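REQUEST
  id: r-88c1
  op: predict_structure
  target: 6-phospho-beta-glucosidase
  payload:
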Amino acid sequence: MMTYQAFPEGFLWGGATAANQCEGAYDADGRGLANVDVVPIGKDRFPIITGQKKMFDFEEGYFYPAKESIDFYGHYKEDIALFAEMGFKTYRMSIAWTRIFPKGDEAEPNEAGLQFYENVFKECRKYGIEPLVTITHFDCPMYLIEHYGGWRNRKLIDFYEHLCRALFTRFKGLVHYWLTFNEINMILHAPFMGAGLYFEEGENAEEVKYQAAHHELVASALATKIAHEVDPDNKVGCMLAAGQYYPNTCNPDDYWEALQEDRENYFFIDVQARGEYPNYAKKKFAKLGLQLEMTAEDLVLLKEHTVDFISFSYYSSRVASADSSLKETTAGNIFASLKNPYLKSSEWGWQIDPLGLRITLNTLWDRYQKPLFIVENGLGAVDTPDENGYVADDYRIDYLREHIKTMNQAINEDGVELWGYTTWGCIDLVSAGTGEMKKRYGFIYVDRDNEGNGSLKRSKKKSFAWYKKVIASNGTDLD
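RESPONSE
  id: r-88c1
  status: 200
  body:
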């Protein structure tokens, strides 16, 4: 057996889910309708999440997987007990905004929604699991989209502030780690999912996206301010869909293209971690003729309330080229990139690059000098269970092992400060990108298919016992 250096004492091992991908119970106990509810599985999913096709309610002829999902709402005690059995130190989850404020603009929160999350957090605490809570994980009330236009409207800052005050006050002492917006850079690639944006004919989509991004950035700073005021022990992080861009060749033009692509993603974190708009972004806005409305007070908020740590998802690296004739792309986390001939791919075409995680960790650490937290990483695959629901998912173990090795190197050899690691979809859930159940990430198999059939029975995969051993050994036993 090969042993590795231990991870830092107190390292937060765990797993991650999102409310809209696991809770179900879309209309239970006063919950309102959200953008992520009305996104169906099938060919129209991508046009809808990118704001190109309008779907503001359920329509005939479609299946909406978020309606029931895996019913974490009804199974949370069972699921958290399984997380505890694996030894989780933390559980990353998100709040469904419409459970707390069904329309989004109410004066008073929905008590049933607050009580549900209080119960979940207390269940975590019972097992010594630290909740890591994403306030908004691709989640916007449909009422705010229909009546205010989503995050293009500055009023959403006030509604988000109201949400945050309700959460920070009610859950003081139960939750200490918060993330403001999941994968905030996704607003550029999946704007309906990321910010409730649907583009009307003739609109300047780039201007709308960056205006909405400004509102989210100000809201994030405001949330950070309030969190620290309510409880000085609160730690607030931002969240990036990460993955370093490699130049396709050593042609300087390719290197420059890769730098530009990286900047497009890091722009959001530059603001959240450094407290101001970078010059390259200001130049870009001017070049594109984007007229963004921002107040002097906005800029003070951004400057004075930067995040405590930087969290990110990592599934694969990406490739950039200045040569527009290159067409061979690979799938990825919503947005594709050029194919890297040196890497293998998953069943969904996502390229597998463990060293890319070490590169990404070092890049983020060098750029920001703030603690890092990997809050999504994992392999989506078709799992074939036996009659007992057991899956021999050695391919998942191999994937995670190699990524954990490079995390270890980043910490112990490179000096990166990394607080924790939550694998994505620690229990099988609905895919955000495709809406599928058969694209599974979990240590726990859930009996449900793409059409919503199945008993929802939970069962442990081979990776369950393996991850339990990894956590118990603090990363020293990866066999």
